[in-house]
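ingest -> validate -> predict -> emit
validate: passed (alphabet ok, no gaps, 122 aa)
predict: started
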Amino acid sequence: MAIKNPIFVGFTWAFMTSISLLLVLIILVQFTSLPESSLPTLTYAIHIVSILIGALKAGFRSSQKGWYAGALTGFIYMLLIVLFGSMLFSSITLSVESLIQVVIGISIGAVGGIVGVNFNAR
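emit:
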């Protein structure tokens, strides 16, 4: 049974991509001389790539309104990242930085969804 909801499919792809890339990052930090100070930057890059891949898949699946499917995929992904991060650090606060991250996630998702719809048109 195939899942038809493009936003769910996009989020699933984004989440699985994120987990895979984070595991690669963990291995790199453990077995190479990669400095731990580069982890925040690399983590942001992983989130961007994950949202982009998920939004591409959501846009491809939706076949119309790719910007909407991609933006919603990015929003859900970033919302969950911010919520989990807040729970891990035992303070659920909504800061300007977390709002900027969510807006960036929505924007990247919208762009990915637009590109995904255009790949589907071929």
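The chain has a mean pLDDT of 88.
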